[in-house]
């Protein structure tokens, strides 16, 4: 097998990123099928991406014998059911984060994954495939920072998407701010330290759109984490960044510190004019992590072709979701939560 035929479910903003990459940027992969309830999205895939087959029913797609692997980029609450069905139909599975929104359902899914050791399962924590994060990871593993003592993470979406999120929150479940956004940072903290989170304390505020209070969602939140070896983590998550898409990570150790994307630069251009000295910044996640998305998809396909297990697995999804849900509980109950 030299070419993996892929079917993708979900053609929203992130789904289109994965679909385009599978069609044009991922070696040894063919985007063979798409699944969406919207005819317009299926037509887009056929006309713009050269997809041969479109489905409105997910079960029909995973039963297609021409499909070797499934990419799941659907709403978070569907992930566990869709992962299980794809595996039972003999497919390799890549799923976007989070793996699920319910711990019991995630544990059930992990049990199913373990029943199919010859099929590959990978979770979409793409920041592990970003060159800057990989560079920082290498420095940490070489001991350049000494023993890590604190990791601070910012993950703030651009404000131009906040109004549409408010509408979404009124009818759908994102899993909450920490599961929807901070889960990438939670995964990075686990990845950099090799430690699990033991306790969390979370707070938050709705300022620009107070109506989010009525649907149990957060516009801006923060959390402090205590890891197993007492390393500290600080999460800042939000949906109202006016300069663009702000993802920043700081690592502090006994021998030094580093910051990844202290300024979320779009490129190496500096503009000097009547507005002062300005550095253009990344405006959204497809732009900031464009190559990371390609890298992770390439890695998944390579895992299938070389019979290698992916480095990002279901346990990473379980542990990160545990922490994200604990942060949500801490905010709602206004108390320290043991994970």
| Whole-number mean pLDDT | 95
CATH architecture of the largest domain: 2-Layer Sandwich
The biggest beta sheet is recorded as:
7 strands, mixed
Regions with pLDDT < 50 over 5+ consecutive residues?
Answer: none
Please, how many domains?
2
CATH class of the largest domain: Alpha Beta
Helix percentage range? 25-40%
Protein name: Inositol 2-dehydrogenase
Keywords: Oxidoreductase
Domain Gfo/Idh/MocA-like oxidoreductase N-terminal: 4-119
Family: Belongs to the Gfo/Idh/MocA family.
Structural summary, described in words:
The protein is an alpha/beta fold and 339 residues long. The chain has two domains: 116 residues, Rossmann fold, CATH 3.40.50.720; 180 residues, Dihydrodipicolinate Reductase, domain 2 (2-Layer Sandwich). 37% of the residues lie in helices and 26% in strands. The strands form three sheets. Strands 12-11-7-10-9-8-15 form a seven-stranded mixed sheet, covered by helices on one side. Helix 1 crosses helix 10, helix 4 runs parallel beside helix 5 and helix 8 crosses helix 11. The longest helix is centred in the C-terminal third of the chain and has 20 residues. The chain is globular and about 50 Å long. The relative contact order is 0.16.
